[in-house]
Every structure is written in structure tokens, then in C-alpha cells.
Specification:
The chain is of the alpha/beta class and 324 residues long. It has a domain at 79-251: Rossmann fold (3-Layer(aba) Sandwich). The protein contains 14 helices and 13 strands. Helix 2 crosses helix 14 (316-323). It is globular and about 60 Å long. Mean pLDDT is 88; it is low at 1-19 and 316-324.
Length: 324
């Protein structure tokens, strides 16, 4: 039977058996027609300049509910839930190999060391001043490396705020400082650049259980530098940020779907994970969001929710096909 299947959210499935409801093609068609009718009625009533602030407020509320712009705390961003409630189950080991790329002063790394005290954790930070503080803070708990990671081995220029003391805004894209952070005269420092593939081979690492990337718009290049391990299926779970800095680096979320064909992308929510459909309307949002790439073969074991036609709003294609 070619019926659609609905699955219950992951946190509910932890306490009850997964809910599977078979939906007939007729019910699916009826739902889409009703949903599109409601959307068209809303547009007829509220698509007016008078309701601009109302509609903008609804967009902001919707973004928060979909895991976008929740950057105020590590709880809202979903990082606390991931690290302390789910990551141990996801990885299935007490001794994982973890890369924290763009570790800054080590707040995220410290939480990882608390959860995995026996893990082999590598923290990469390119800014010399910031890396010095990172080294003093976590050298007894993790392996600190003073280097940027990217798609090639060599040197690069790192830009930062004008005081030269190191900040969380440092990026190899100078325009990130100018356009996003409004810093007119960023400082520039030469730094060493490595790749994940080269570093892993040089250090006898054949699998990375968890890769976290926060490199201010350079995340895709970091993944390009892991092409060999990715192709071999040796990079398991990947967390990375996607935000307005990607407008500077000219990177779309579609590029991450392309470079990670054997992973499914989820947005981190405060207590859950939201699967992302690979369509432009719901995919290309250039605002803060924490994303988790999960190997397709591990989604069921991790009890993560799956995409279904019911989990997304009707698209323009649905509307055209259903109303004919």
C-alpha cells in the first residue's frame, strides 16, 4: 500500500512506542487542499501593508520555533541538549574521537570534556592570542592545536577586531568583520592552515566520531578538507553553524547537502531535532542556526524524527498539482 506514514517526535518516542499512522492518498490530497485554502484565505485578508508588523512578528515567532535565531543561550541554541542529553547515545562510546574546529576560548570544548572525560578531543583555534587562553584553560583535558582548518594546507590570513586580543568574530573572510560586525579596520594576522584529512593521517586518526565546526563562514571549506574521510564514511556526526556570514562566503545550505550526500541535516532545537527538507523555501535561511548532520544509517538507532509530507507546509508545487 502506497500510504504516507506519520511518525511521532523523537522525545515522545523515547517513552512510548513510535506512532505510525497510515494516511491514504485521498486523505493526503484533502489535507493539502484544505491547507492551501487556509493559506489563500489568510493572504486575501492579511497581505496588506496595514498588517506588515503583524506578519513580520509571525515570521520571527516561526523562525524561533524552527530553530533559527535561538542564539541567546546554549539551552535555546540546542547545544546543551545535544551534548548532555543525546550525544553519548548518538556516538555509542565513552571514548570518542572529537574535533572542535574554531574552539575559541573553549566553552564548547569544556562541555565536551565533561561529558566525555575519556574521549580524545582535539581543539583547533587559529588566533594566537585566543589560542593561548584556550591552551591555559583546557590543555590538561584536550589536545589544543594552533591552526586554522580549511580545504588546503599552507598559510592564510585571519581577520579580527581591531584590538588584536582575539575575539569570537575572527574569520578568514575580512568582509565578515566589515559587513556583519561593522568593524571598519579589522586586524590581520598570518596563520597556519591544515586540513582534516592531512591532520588525521599525520596523527593516525582513521575515524572522527563527532566534528563540530564554528569558523565564521568557512565551514564548507573545512568539510572540503575532509573529503577523503567523508567519502570513506569515517566522519560520523557533524555539528556546524549556518548564518548570515555565509552570504559573505557565498555558500548555500544546498552546498552542505551536496558535500554530505550520506547524511541527513537537522536543526537543533532546545529539546529536540528538526529534519530539514532539501527545498529552497525551508532550506536557505541566512540567519543563526545550529545544524547536525547525522549518518543516514544511524537515524533510526538514534530515534530521530523523519521527514514526511505532513511535516512541512504545502509548497507552490503542491498547490498547482492539487487544485487542477
Amino acid at each position: 500500500m502506497n500510504d504516507a506514514v506519520l511518525t511521532c517526535p523523537s522525545r515522545v518516542s523515547q517513552t512510548i512506542a513510535p506512532l505510525r499512522i497510515h494516511v491514504s492518498p485521498f486523505m493526503r490530497s484533502a489535507f493539502l487542499k484544505l491547507a492551501n485554502l487556509i493559506l489563500e484565505i489568510y493572504a486575501l485578508i492579511f497581505a496588506r501593508v496595514t498588517f506588515r508588523n503583524w506578519n513580520a512578528w509571525l515570521v520571527q515567532l516561526g523562525f524561533r520555533g524552527l530553530g533559527v535565531l535561538n542564539h541567546r543561550t546554549d539551552f535555546l541554541s540546542g547545544e546543551r541538549h545535544l551534548i548532555h542529553s543525546r550525544l553519548r547515545r548518538f556516538l555509542g562510546t565513552d571514548t570518542p574521537v572529537i574535533f572542535d574546529v574554531g574552539a575559541n576560548e573553549g566553552n564548547y570544548t569544556v562541555e565536551l570534556t565533561k561529558e566525555f572525560p575519556k574521549g580524545k578531543i582535539f581543539a583547533f583555534e587559529p588566533h594566537p592570542a585566543t589560542c593561548g587562553r584556550l591552551q591555559r584553560r583546557i590543555a590538561d583535558r584536550a589536545h589544543v592545536r594552533h591552526a586554522a582548518l580549511g580545504s588546503s594546507v599552507g598559510k592564510t590570513i585571519l581577520y579580527d577586531s581591531g584590538n588584536g586580543h582575539g575575539s569570537g568574530h575572527a574569520s578568514i573572510h575580512g568582509q565578515v568583520l566589515r559587513s556583519v560586525h561593522k568593524i571598519d579596520n579589522p586586524t590581520a594576522v598570518d596563520v597556519e592552515m591544515d586540513t582534516i584529512d592531512h591532520f588525521s593521517e599525520a596523527n593516525g586518526i582513521d575515524i572522527i566520531d563527532f566534528l563540530k565546526i564554528d569558523t565564521e563562514g568557512n565551514e564548507l571549506e573545512v568539510l572540503k578538507g575532509a573529503a577523503r574521510l567523508l567519502k570513506a564514511g569515517r566522519v560520523r556526526f557533524i555539528q556546524f553553524e549556518f548564518n548570515e556570514m555565509n552570504t559573505v562566503s557565498r555558500v548555500f545550505l544546498a552546498d552542505f547537502f551536496s558535500i554530505l550526500p550520506n547524511h541527513t541535516l537537522f536543526r537543533l532545537l532546545p529539546r529536540d531535532f528538526l529534519p530539514i527538507e532539501n527545498v529552497p523555501l525551508t532550506r536557505e535561511v541566512f540567519a543563526f542556526q545550529n545544524l547536525l548532520a547525522v549518518p543516514d544509517g544511524e537515524i533510526e538507532r538514534c530515534e530521530l524524527p523523519k521527514l514526511s509530507w505532513f511535516s512541512r507546509p504545502p509548497s507552490a508545487t503542491d498547490a498547482r498539482s492539487e487544485w487542477r
